[in-house]
Write a structure and sequence with these properties.
mainly beta; Immunoglobulin-like; 9-stranded mixed beta sheet; 9 strands
Amino acid sequence: MKNILFSCAALLLTLLLGGARSTDPAVVTLDSDAARSVLAYARTDSALALQAYAWRDFMPGARGCAAPEARSLRMNVTVRGNSLASLPAGARISALSVRYADELWLADAQPSSDCGTDSACVAANARGGPAWPTGARVLVIARVTLPSGHESIVTDSLVEIVRTE
């Protein structure tokens, strides 16, 4: 059932991508009704828990200020299973989206080793996001794909974008 719901959400999102876009090619602008429709399918799998950390880097560089690309939104996400059976070896975060207001960042999630030796955990990082304001709260949506092909959707709402200096 969750695969069907995700497929419906993916299809709806694909159809909507032909609409308005922001200046950032990885961010799509959706009207409020469409965004609510897409997010209505983002039901959290209760066997999994998503933790997300969002930040923009403003630390000074060699020339006194961070490079513009360093100031883009970055994400660290971890998904933990409630038991070893709920998140078997080989699970991965296969898609990551972040919503702020009426924009959705389709992040390029890269596997991460942030879980250490926790075998009931998978992690991913994403860089190059939009320059949304620090202090803003975002909704993070991750798709976890198991080795069996089963997919689960997990969310973390009201994640604050912090500023590093």
